[in-house]
Design a protein that fits this description.
The protein is an alpha+beta fold. The protein is built from 16 helices and 20 strands. This is Peptide/nickel transport system substrate-binding protein.
Amino acid sequence: MKRSTMLVGLALSGTLLVSACSGGAAGSAQNAAGPAGKPAQGGVVQVLANAGFSHLDPARGFDGGVNNFYRLIYRTLTTQGAAPGAEGTKIVPDLATDTGKASDGGKTWTFTLKDGLFFETGAPITSAEVKFGVSRAWDPELGIGSPYAKQIIDAPASYQGPYKSGDLPTIATPDAKTVVFHLKKPYADFGSVVAQNTFVPIPVGSGVGNQLDAKPIASGPYKVAQYKPGASLKLVRNDKWDAKTDSVRAAKPDGFQWTFGLDGATIDERMIAGQGTDANAIAGTIQAATVARVQTPQLKQRTLSGLGGCTTYMGLNTTKKPLGDVRVRQAINLAVNKQTVRDAVGGSSLAELATSIQPPTVVGRVDYNPYPSQDGKGDREAARKLLAEAGLAGGFTLTLDTRAQPKMQAMAVAIQQALEPLKITVKINTIDTSTYYEVIGTPSQQHDAAITGWCPDWPSGATFLPPLFDGRNIVAKGNSNLAQLNDPGVNSRIDEIAAMSDVKQANAAYGELDKQIMKLAPIVPLLYEKVVTVVGSNIAGAYLHDGFSGGIDLVSVGLTDAGK
């Protein structure tokens, strides 16, 4: 999800992290009268949010909040399931009849489309539209979202998407229902890759520039009826969607209504009061000050909580002096007081201290701490020693990028204060939330460091470490390797793991690679944040989805009483 990542807490997660689509812990169990009860047919679910979506164009958006939203209006060849816990992250067929058939030693993958698939316009969805949608990922302006298609699918080096370069010969469409992908090298988990947003079918020739950001072309159960960026978004039923072709989306409500730009404290007050249409509302993670207030029996029944499945971290730009010196990066890792960073987001109720790159929810993850300190408060003396070795006992100045959001500002200040005793002056550069990931994902606009995060697109190390640290994937726009790390040892180990045909063996190897990377200290793991959210009293079918940054799974939620 995802920088999801990159994960943005636009609609359903108060945290803003980088992407990818994300895993998390299962939400707390609810009884039949609570949020997990069966939704009725009809009604409109209200969504209260602090910020708007990054992009409605599936080639451009890549964060937990928008990835979750996309499933309402778009479909892909496969998708994650619709259930709490590990069941929700299982890859299942969506537009395709199965999760793909590999041949040529895993370098060629074939998918067959189901019958009865249509866009909201009534036009049929064929292999040509799937191919066209995927080929948009190579467009240098549009393809800033999920990186997997262009990293894994073979393509001419000069290819720049269908609008500039025309046909992509490495994706074949022998007939209207068959799509064949030719990969650069074998990829055992390609059935999960095609669940990414870049595999949304798009009518051939459409989607130039900002067209899909303004008016998406739906293939899912809902379509956009009205969109005012930064203010509101209304979804209504797509009558060309056939439920018989879709085993994932319950699509019980008649529509969804987003209200963007609300202050976090205002959202909390409205959700707790639950008056009027707010009884039909869902929102993101509550503010730290609200945690104590939701302990009453009545509100507990309307509360969902669990790990978001993402890692909040500070990326260190290894191309900037003096951060190019590994000793300096290691010193910063030792010096940061993670307790005060956690206090900034609301304390232990809303986050755990992070020690490794991968969060606890990733399969194969190793629990270790390469830069330990007492209670995570930082080891200032060890940091001073490393800075002295690097000739920087007198300190230096760095610029830290963060978002225009109170919690993220507080985290930046906590880091600033932790580094000050080492004579490291941190200048905080605040960037608008809606454009944050585009700015820090453009190397020419990057500063020395950035507070961000990453969530797995499916619970595997393949969706965590290669996107963030493979130096061959550094691009001019939509770059997820914020550290701009290009280490030959890391790159070659990524190749070795990718060649493994056993996914379980590969995930274990990624757990060890986590250690190898952290010796280079390209990031400072800060927190594994939690989702704590209150839903309206008339909400049913609500659970936290491990695959979408711990947010409420939108394809399953609905109303207990559709007439309210």
